[in-house]
Every structure is written in structure tokens, then in C-alpha cells.
Design a protein that fits this description.
The complex is a heterodimer of chains A (438) and B (252).
Chain A (H helix, E strand, L loop, with lengths): L1 H28 L11 H13 L8 H30 L6 H4 L1 H29 L14 H32 L17 H9 L4 H25 L7 H10 L13 H11 L25 H9 L5 H5 L1 H4 L6 H21 L11 H4 L3 H5 L6 H5 L6 H15 L5 H13 L16
Helix pairs in contact in A: 1-8, 1-14, 2-9, 3-5, 5-6, 6-7, 6-8, 9-11, 11-14, 14-18
Chain B lengths: L1 H5 L6 E4 L1 H6 L1 H16 L4 E2 L10 H5 L3 H17 L4 E4 L2 H10 L8 E4 H10 L14 E4 L13 H9 L3 E3 L29 H10 L5 E4 L2 H13 L7 E4 H7 L2
Classes of the chains: A mainly alpha (438), B alpha/beta (252).
């Protein structure tokens, strides 16, 4: 009885804490400016099915994609077992679905076990890629410190979770095989694909009481790890396992070459061309051109930042980065998220409103040198497996530097002058435009 | 265009030459090749001549939205004044800007890149290519970012190269995975940030790895960058950098 109570308190506490943190993330994302991404819902669902659920873009690089698929499928399928764990936890039963599902139960658990082994292989491979093989994109400087630790925590957490599953099933296999189960009339092996063999191999010689303890450690360990993982997500890059889906749903559906139009600028330009032009009245709040800080970005750009799992495919395809410039599209996303988290904490201690802390995304996190190194080639946008758009943030920040600070590099200012005076980025006279035909 | 207007006619097509095509000596040759192809196919077209002005692309990519919109509004006034319906461009940057960014400011036209247009002329039989002169020649195509990733046009230029009987070889990074030449995002007009390599050298290295006779391009800026890259490797004698339009024009 006491264990039921502990389980319910434990589980409810975990769920509540997770909900509180998710609401904070949601609040943080919604400090961004509005943008309409609710059109074409059928196209969006299709995109989500292909890119997020179907992992379409992952398979541009088949080896990590396959390893990732093991973890992804195992994660989803294991949730079935979690249903039973919750049902057992609140009712005090043991393997509640076993008797009613019979052979199908063995099939499901066996399936989970096989996927868990594949996920185990995937996790070991991922750990080696990061720590032994040192795949270039996984050891770049922006990952030093916490991001590297975060990645290893997640992978070690996954290994621990898998170990608990096999402790639970393996010990139970031996208990049932020896006729020592307290909870069931029918004894004998379940015939689970992996633990029917692994269980006797590891736990075969143990006493009844030791097996019961091991089985319980496995069961409680599993529940604990699931809740720990869940509550770790909002603090970690691993949040992508949930946010990838809405993030892909709200993707930009237009041509990648089409940059946003600034309506506030359009109104000014219209008035310059025709002072009598009718423009929508301003709502009185002073407008800022471009983005200096996270609140100048859209909620989608902020959602992008929380969705990023720092895989670095963007950075490894970026022409600036691969030729040694400081720009890394992944760092743009990480900086945006880190600043947003900082702004969120500021709001937490100031009754939900942001109090100026004298810092901003520009300069304190992202330097002009990074922003000016961009070729706007869209390689990062193309590469991202969950349709994150680092380029749009770079452009918004360039807009701020040019239109609010007039701090473009000198050569670009000359280019602007040439366009303004000669209608071309070079110092040629517009009257000479037809000279090619001579 | 003004001459057509004086005669009371409207040409079916406006050829948007672009700044590079108007002023850059290398790109002027591409412009003349495009004109040669259009004339050969008896396409009735016009140019804006001295009334053309920068589309504002480099200003927009550099963050100067204000200057971009000033340019765009000015150009749209002229284009709409001539009732232009269809535009062919010799540059993917003009193409992208006119096609994607002018509609929001009141400029709605059918915009087509010269490689797409030429490919249509070939498939409609309006120009016939005497095959042979490129037979067996190894040609690799460098995808311009603003034609490829930005607008998903990958196959039209390749189809032309196949129609020319050339042996099309692909770089490791091609189509959606293509690497920028280093000019985009207004980089053409400034020194690169500190690094350990120039982007155009990196890209040219990838192109040369296919051992080509010709590196075909579809953008005057890519042309400049890759040409410089080929010179960097002292290969200008053995490897030519040519626009797809030039390959066709040579063959008419």
C-alpha cells in the first residue's frame, strides 16, 4: 500500500514540475513577435509527418540517421511499457497486461527489448562519436563546457534507463522460471526475446530475495529515470524530442530565397515616394528595425532556439565556418536560447516583466563579426533536420546593425552609397548601362 | 523598352540585365550570349537600358531594408509603367529578388532565370543545338545558392548541359547540398572576415576534384569567384569557367 502512495506522489510531482517548466518555456517563446504560421494546415501536417516523424532530412547522412532511428523508435515504443508501469504503480498490481494479452504481451515486450538493444548500440556509438572518434562537428568550440556535458548526460541517462529495463525483465524472468513470483498463479518463463536468455545468464544463481530486490530496483529505476528525463528536458538541448514536431509544423513554407518584408519600412518608403499615401497608423510604440535582443525576434525563431539539439549539421555545411570564420549557425541558435533563458529568469524574479539588465543578444552573445561572415546561402536552413532557420536571425540582426546603428563595415556603406547614387553596387554611371550592347 | 512604347508595342519579354551584366566586363559577355540566344530564337524582347537600376538585392542581404525598398519601389514604378508581364534575368540574385520579394511591394511578374528560359527554348525546338563540339567534354555545374536552394531550380541548367552532349560530372556537394561560391550575402562587396581559407578557393577545389574541362555556372558573381579560384590553382589554361548561356551561344 505504501508503495502505491509513494508512486502516486512521485509520479504526480514529476508531472506537475514538468508542466510548470513547460509553461515557463512557452511564456519565454511567446515574448517573441507574432508571425502567422497557421495557414496551409494540410501541407504542414504532411511536412511534419515526413520531416519530424519520418526523419526524412536525417537520412541525408545515413549512418547517424540509422543510429538515431534506433533511439527514436525505441523511445516511442518503450512508452507502451510505461503505460503498464503506471497502471501497476497506481493499482499495486504486477505486469497487469500480461495475463489478458498472453502471447501478444510477450511479443510487445520482446519488441521493446530488441529495440532497447539497438538503442543501446546507438547510444554507445554516439558516445564514441563524441568522445573517442571526435567527429568534427561534435567537438567544435561552442560545445565546450555545459553543452558537451549535457550531451553526455543524456546518452549516459539512456544507457542507465536501458539497464534498468533489463534488470527488471531479467530478474522477473528468473523469478517466474523458478516459480518464485508472489503475484501470479501461473509461473514459468515469459519467453521475452532478450531477457529470457540474458536474465538466467546474469541473475541465474541468485537467491529468491535478491531477485525480488533486483526486480524492484529495475522497476523503480525505470520510473525514476523516466521522470528524471522528463524534467531534465526543459533545461536541455534534449527538448528537441518534443519540440521537433511543432517546430516542423510551423516551418517556413515559402521559397528560402524570400526574405521577410519589413512593413514598417514599407510605410516610410511609401510616404517618401508620395507624401499623400495612406499608411496604417502606427500604434504609438517606437518601432525598432531588426533585432538587437530576443524580444525583437518572432516566436518561431525563439521556438527554433529551444528545438535545436546542437547536432551541428548546419555548421558543418556553412561556407563561412568551414573556411575558418567565427560564424557558426549552431552557435547563433544556442546563443539565442541561452539569452532567452536568461531573460526568462529575469522575468521570474521581476513578477513576470523583463527588467533591463544592460545586456542583449547582440554583442553580449553574438558578435558583429559572426553576423557579417554570413553568405546568406541557406545551407544551414537546408541542412537542419527539424527545419530551424538560423539565417533569418542573422538577417534581423544585420538589419538592426545597419538601420539602427549604422555600423555596417565601411565597404558595405560604400556599396549602399553606390546603389543610392548610381543604381548599382559599383561606382558606374547609370547612363552607361547599355554599354554592353556597343 | 522606351522605343517599343513609342511604337505602341509591348514586347513579350523583358530581359533584366542586372548590374553585373551591365558593368562587369566578364559578365557583359554573358549578357551578349543571352541576347544572341534570344535573337536566334526570334524572341521579341526589350531591355530597360538606362532606366534599369539595382534590384536592391545586396542591400537587402546586408540588412539595409530601407535602401532595398527604395530601389524596389523605383523599379516597380518603371516596370508597372511599361506593363511588364514576364521577365528573364541573367543573374539568380535579380531573379530571386524580382520573383519573391517584389510582389509584396506591388510588383507582380512572371520571372524566369535565363537557364530555365533557354532550356524551354531547346525543348520547344526554338533553338537547335548542333551537338558535337562539347562531346566528351567533362563539365561540372556549380549551383548558385539563389537559383538552387533559394528557389529549387536544379535541373534546367543540367538539362542544357546534357543537351549539349557534354559529359556532366557532379561535385560531391551538389544541388541542395551545393557550397556557396563566397559572393552571396553582400560578401562580393567586402573583404571576408578572418579565417583560414577563402570560400571561393574551397569551392573551386571541390570543382577541380571532378577533373573538369569546363566549370559551368549560372550566375555572374559565381563566375567571378570561381574564375578567381581557378587562377588561384593556376589552372586557367586547362579549365574554363563559362556561363551555361555562353556554352549554348558558342554552339549556335
Amino acid at each position: 500500500m505504501i508503495s502505491i502512495l509513494i508512486f502516486i506522489i512521485f509520479f504526480t510531482g514529476g508531472a506537475v514540475w514538468f508542466t510548470i517548466n513547460c509553461r515557463k518555456v512557452r511564456r519565454n517563446i511567446l515574448i517573441g513577435k507574432d508571425i502567422d504560421r497557421k495557414d496551409n494546415s494540410s501541407q504542414r501536417w504532411k511536412l511534419m509527418a515526413l520531416v519530424a516523424m519520418g526523419q526524412k532530412k536525417m537520412f541525408e547522412r545515413p549512418i547517424p540517421a540509422l543510429l538515431h532511428l534506433f533511439l527514436y523508435v525505441a523511445f516511442i515504443i518503450t512508452q507502451i511499457e510505461l503505460i503498464e508501469i503506471v497502471a501497476d504503480g497506481v493499482s499495486g498490481s504486477h505486469r497487469m497486461f500480461a495475463s489478458s494479452l498472453g502471447g501478444f504481451y510477450t511479443f510487445i515486450i520482446s519488441f521493446i527489448e530488441i529495440l532497447s538493444i539497438l538503442a543501446f548500440i546507438g547510444t554507445i556509438a554516439f558516445l564514441s562519436r563524441r568522445n573517442l572518434l571526435k567527429v568534427p562537428r561534435l567537438v567544435k568550440s561552442e560545445l565546450n563546457g555545459w553543452p558537451k556535458l549535457d550531451a553526455n548526460f543524456i546518452l549516459l541517462g539512456e544507457i542507465t534507463l536501458i539497464c534498468f529495463i533489463f534488470m527488471m525483465n531479467g530478474a522477473d524472468e528468473v523469478l517466474y522460471r523458478n516459480g518464485w513470483s508472489h503475484v501470479s498463479e501461473s509461473q514459468g518463463s515469459f519467453g521475452f526475446a532478450i531477457s529470457a536468455h540474458l536474465g538466467p545468464m546474469i541473475f541465474g544463481g541468485m537467491s529468491e530475495s535478491a531477485l525480488h530486490v533486483i526486480e524492484r530496483i529495475g522497476w523503480w529505476g525505470h520510473v525514476t529515470m523516466v521522470l528524471a528525463f522528463l524534467n531534465y528536458l526543459p533545461y536541455s538541448k534534449h527538448f528537441h524530442i518534443l519540440l521537433a514536431f511543432p517546430n516542423v509544423y510551423f516551418s517556413n513554407l515559402l521559397a528560402k530565397g524570400k526574405f521577410t518584408n519589413l512593413d514598417s519600412v514599407t510605410n516610410e518608403v511609401k510616404l517618401m515616394f508620395d507624401p499623400s499615401a495612406v499608411v496604417p497608423p502606427s500604434d504609438g510604440t517606437p518601432m525598432r528595425f531588426g533585432a538587437k535582443d530576443v524580444m525583437d525576434l518572432t516566436w518561431k525563431q525563439l521556438l527554433d532556439s529551444y528545438t535545436c539539439t546542437e547536432c551541428g549539421r548546419c555548421t558543418s555545411s556553412c561556407p563561412a565556418n568551414i573556411t575558418g570564420k567565427v560564424l557558426s549557425p549552431r552557435k547563433i541558435m544556442m546563443d539565442t536560447r541561452d539569452r532567452l533563458v536568461e531573460v526568462g529568469k529575469n522575468m521570474d524574479v521581476n513578477n513576470g516583466t523583463f527588467k533591463d539588465d544592460g545586456k542583449s543578444l547582440l554583442n553580449d552573445y553574438i558578435t558583429p563579426e559572426e553576423l557579417w561572415a554570413c553568405n546568406t546561402c541557406n545551407a544551414c536552413v537546408q541542412e537542419c533536420p527539424v527545419n530551424i532557420d538560423p539565417l533569418s536571425i542573422i538577417i534581423e540582426m544585420r538589419r538592426f546593425m545597419v538601420m539602427e546603428q549604422s555600423s555596417a563595415p565601411a565597404e558595405l556603406n560604400s556599396m549602399f552609397n553606390n546603389i543610392e547614387n548610381n543604381g548599382a553596387p559599383w561606382q558606374f554611371s547609370q547612363a552607361d548601362r547599355l554599354k554592353w550592347a556597343e | 523598352m522606351a522605343e517599343y512604347l513609342a511604337k505602341g508595342e509591348t514586347p513579350e519579354l523583358l530581359f533584366w540585365v542586372g548590374c553585373a551584366g551591365s558593368f562587369d566586363d566578364r559578365a557583359k559577355k554573358i549578357t551578349r550570349s543571352i541576347v544572341k540566344i534570344l535573337n536566334h530564337a526570334n524572341v521579341k524582347f526589350a531591355v530597360l537600358g538606362t532606366e534599369e537600376s539595382c534590384t536592391g538585392d545586396p542591400a537587402k542581404r546586408a540588412g539595409n531594408e530601407f535602401l532595398f525598398q527604395m530601389q524596389a519601389m523605383g523599379n516597380i514604378t518603371i516596370l508597372n509603367g511599361y506593363e511588364v508581364k514576364k521577365i528573364i534575368t541573367g543573374c539568380p540574385h535579380c531573379y530571386n529578388t524580382l520573383k519573391n520579394e517584389y510582389p509584396a511591394l506591388g510588383g507582380n511578374y512572371e520571372v524566369i532565370h535565363h537557364t530555365e528560359f533557354i532550356q524551354q527554348l531547346i525543348s520547344n525546338g526554338l533553338i537547335k543545338i548542333e551537338g558535337g563540339s562539347f562531346k566528351g567534354k567533362k563539365v561540372t555545374f556549380h549551383d548558385p545558392c539563389y537559383l538552387g536552394r533559394a528557389n529549387d531550380v536544379y535541373e534546367a541548367p543540367r538539362q542544357i548541359l546534357i543537351d549539349l552532349d557534354s559529359q556532366l560530372v557532379e561535385m560531391q556537394r551538389n544541388r541542395a547540398d551545393g557550397l556557396c561560391c563566397g559572393a552571396g550575402g553582400a560578401q562580393m562587396f567586402k573583404e571576408a572576415e578572418k579565417g583560414n581559407k577563402e570560400v571561393n578557393v574551397e569551392r573551386t577545389e571541390q570543382a577541380l576534384a571532378t577533373n573538369p574541362n569546363i566549370i559551368a555556372v549560372g550566375c555572374p558573381f559565381c563566375n567571378t569567384m570561381i574564375t578567381d579560384g581557378v587562377k588561384h590553382f593556376n589552372k586557367e589554361e586547362s579549365v574554363k569557367v563559362l556561363d551555361v548561356a555562353e556554352l549554348i551561344a558558342q554552339n549556335l
